[in-house]
Design the sequence.
């Protein structure tokens, strides 16, 4: 049998009309804002706070990943299929893919194999225009800033060297990372240094994902911290009267998008902030929408649990008053070999010793999840190269820790490959009577909050603050932002801030180099290393391998 | 009675479902790709070449405009209402507004008063995402160019000083006009000068509007001329293997958008290229769609008839084999006063002498239209400040020329204000038995084609070619682009290339400063003056006056 690519599998599926998916969730046809036959936006009045409390939120996260990723999205979709197979009403609530990487190297993010959300081409391309709306809102603020800089009538005396707001574009385009703008004489504004980030790195994206309603969105947009005047006065987006026009641009983007899985189950896909410098998880509104309409909501958060789950729980769940009932930790044997010391060329060969040595990474993540008063389930996302030995070892070791580890075969078999995982999740959810608790209190001092995360979650002995970070702390204090959440920006490749420390590093110190402010998102961002905010294209970009025929049928998109 | 703003009038109208508008055109509900309840994309298979030949295309153009514009869009929509009122099946086929000016000074472009297309907020904002798709396709090519520049594996040896392809953004943002990119070291590409144009100025926009089907679109994208290598070899988008990925980004944007007028008549809105450096009229596909579904299609082209109608007829109608049956020349009394010598502060005062002196402008446009073997109708777009005297003068003078001039009150009264205009148009259309003929043959030499337009349409005595233009002519010859159409880039404020020569200038020479190439659009662009491709924001941007309430109701958008 020919091995089918993701897009071939997706194209082979005859989709049902999105109104039928809506009907499964009890949504009246008139409430669906259709985007063609297979996509719809959902109006915010469908959110029901009472129902949210009654339904079950499950987070899918992962051990410390290898560059290939652990397959969280695929497991999330597969688990949704599995839950529906065993008679639960479950909806996947996920992030929207960014267009940039689609043409670069990473490809899209609509799941894989037989665990996909469809129509995958649309989801991976412009979808319903949310990213574009975010990009335009971001860049309108930029245009207003530069317009003010050169304005005679309303000049704020903004210091062009102290503007923190950057432009964004949803494209992998390294040559826009560092640019100078406003060149060419008096007609073209004031020259200054600037740069473009990729759209998922926009604070507007973070804000849209943190907003609980339209009013909240508008307030947060006004709260965006733009920069300082020459006399060190802070300037916010509201000073530029930008928040209404920005909100106008986001009037549809705030509504979650409904699509379907390959097995015709509901998926809500909405928002996609970066997982390094932002919260890396879908909108609060989408999660609440899912919980208003569905008994189980399966969601995910970017990178390993030290970043994704930590932020999901301490930032999002606290802000939105959500109470997740279970956490699925996705692990691949490949990654465990990596954490046990396997070299790159050894990663695909069965080796129980490496897996044994690497188990400490999974163990630390399990311990961490329990610190939030939540029970984990381990999903082993298997590949053909995995040996029975290795898998059995994981299952047994987890059993010793009182954690159920289950092989997940969603990629290969869809819901039929995840029924066991689904049952394990249901078992945990149904046994849960306690309330999740965050690791830190937002009202604690900033330094204390950062140290709490570093020590409790990363296992660091201490936190060093560089000179710049110390100055940044003072600025945060001066601006009155001490009670913001902490959105850590750290490498995803290690518990520590050194990407080469695999497994479960011990006896280490992490260093905060600087601390950024996302005043509209209401978190501050300690930077623990070089953060990529604008990817580049590889030598041979993925775009070169894509074709579309005269009837509009795409191939080569992944 | 309180004077209602455009958005208040639009919001006061209860829209009917777009499937009812589709039904008026005989479109099956299943063929509509809905974008909510009031917008839909139309599949290309609805285009029917046989029906196109049987139905009637009417172009709305204008005399040489004042900065306020003559109201072509409003007249086009009003005329569509009027035609339907007198029992004709008519559809307006128009350009999509650009987002940039919405937040700047010009405002949107969905008509005005009681002649509007709705939902006006959506049409003026992201609409169905076409502009975003164009922007992304344009900027993907840019990213591929810069990626190639710094590539080790596949470098074309492109000369960074000889790259003609610019990035675009749909925003009024003067500080992006001239920038340097690729700064910050080896990781960030090769430093070079670049700049952003506004999205309507993208050649991808021009291409989408010239394409006759998806295959043609893809070929034209591949034909885009990017720049030269250090050894003067031309590089095209196809060399970068960009055309498939760009076409993938445009797979939905190629489909025309259906909306409704305030009187529930069909409007197809699709594409919006600049009228200065591009063709300034909606897509060929939309025009053909309209003519496939409707007995009358009312369309318009940007700026005065010397630019808009000339390009519409010589470029679009020739390329698409269209045969327009009538041309409506929109004139305001205000503009005629201007052409008769009135100063800015005198423009709103009745003055028959100025109108008499300014009539020569309208007369020349009438003569020009007849050179294409088409009969004009004059639509006098009236304002309260117009005197009976002035209007009667125009009507009588036009009668002497055998042209019917009719007062158009679409802005004030919708279709009830344009029935007479509609009847005048029907009279011309029904009397037309001849075939329109272009002013020049595409196969003539470039210089000859340019001279033909300048002499016959502008009334110039001769054309001067600057040194740079002469070099550009040689380049065009070397590249084999002699048989392209001519897309003149000239001020819209005068028949000449000197914006201060109002009325009907005589004894003048126009100067071609340089000549650009749009190889994918298949036209070459003689530049006769400074062309604005990226507007700026005014001291107080329109965005500041906009609000959106917590339920998403917008005010201040115009």
Sequence:
């Amino acid at each position: 049998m020919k091995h089918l690519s993701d897009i071939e599998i997706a194209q082979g599926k005859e989709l049902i009309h999105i109104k039928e998916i809506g009907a499964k969730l009890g949504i009246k046809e008139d409430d669906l804002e259709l985007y063609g036959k297979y996509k719809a936006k959902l109006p915010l009045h469908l959110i029901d706070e009472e129902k949210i409390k009654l339904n079950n939120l499950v987070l899918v996260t992962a051990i410390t990943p290898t560059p290939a990723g652990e397959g969280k999205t695929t497991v999330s979709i597969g688990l949704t299929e599995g839950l529906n197979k065993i008679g639960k009403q479950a909806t996947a609530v996920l992030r929207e893919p960014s267009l940039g990487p689609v043409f670069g190297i990473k490809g899209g993010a609509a799941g894989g194999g037989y665990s996909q959300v469809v129509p995958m081409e649309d989801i991976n391309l412009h979808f319903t225009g949310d990213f574009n709306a975010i990009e335009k809102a971001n860049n309108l603020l930029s245009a207003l800033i530069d317009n003010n800089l050169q304005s005679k009538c309303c000049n704020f005396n903004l210091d062009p060297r102290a503007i923190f707001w950057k432009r964004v574009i949803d494209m992998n385009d390294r040559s826009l990372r560092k640019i100078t703008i406003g060149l060419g004489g008096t007609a073209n504004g004031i020259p200054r240094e600037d740069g473009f980030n990729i759209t998922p790195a926009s604070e507007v994206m973070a804000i849209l994902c943190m907003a609980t309603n339209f009013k909240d969105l508008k307030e947060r947009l006004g709260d965006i911290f733009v920069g300082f005047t020459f006399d060190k006065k802070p300037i916010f987006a509201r000073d530029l009267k930008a928040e209404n026009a920005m909100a106008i641009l986001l009037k549809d983007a705030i509504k979650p998008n409904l699509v379907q899985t390959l097995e015709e189950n509901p998926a809500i896909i909405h928002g996609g902030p970066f997982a390094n410098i932002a919260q890396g998880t879908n909108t609060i509104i989408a999660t609440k929408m899912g919980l208003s309409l569905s008994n189980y909501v399966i969601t995910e958060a970017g990178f390993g649990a030290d970043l994704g789950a930590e932020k999901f729980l301490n930032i999002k769940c606290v802000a939105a008053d959500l109470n997740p009932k279970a956490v699925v930790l996705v692990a691949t044997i490949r990654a465990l070999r990596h954490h046990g010391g396997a070299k790159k060329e050894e990663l695909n060969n069965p080796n129980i010793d490496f897996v044994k040595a690497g188990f400490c990474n999974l163990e630390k993540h399990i311990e961490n999840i329990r610190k939030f008063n939540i029970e984990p389930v381990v999903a082993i996302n298997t590949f053909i190269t995995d040996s029975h030995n290795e898998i059995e070892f994981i299952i047994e070791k987890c059993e010793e820790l009182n954690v159920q580890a289950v092989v997940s075969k969603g990629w290969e078999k869809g819901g039929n490959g995840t029924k066991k995982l689904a049952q394990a999740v249901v078992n945990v959810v149904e046994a849960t009577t306690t309330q999740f608790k965050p690791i830190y209190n937002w009202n604690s001092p900033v330094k204390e909050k950062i140290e709490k995360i570093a020590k409790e979650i990363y296992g660091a002995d201490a936190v060093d603050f560089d000179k710049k970070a110390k100055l940044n702390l003072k600025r945060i204090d001066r601006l009155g932002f001490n009670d913001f959440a902490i959105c850590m920006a750290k490498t995803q490749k290690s518990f520590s801030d050194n990407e080469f420390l695999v497994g479960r590093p011990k006896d280490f110190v992490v260093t905060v180099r600087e601390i950024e402010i996302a005043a509209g998102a209401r978190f501050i961002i300690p930077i623990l290393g070089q953060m990529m905010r604008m990817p580049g294209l590889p030598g041979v970009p993925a775009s070169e391998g894509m074709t579309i025929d005269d009837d509009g049928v795409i191939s080569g998109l992944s």
Remarks:
- Chain B touches chain A through 76 residues (CB under 8 Å).
- Residues 234 and 523 of chain B are 17 Å apart (CA to CA).
- DSSP finds 19 helices and 26 strands in chain B.
- Chain B has three domains: 6-128+253-431, 130-248, 446-528.
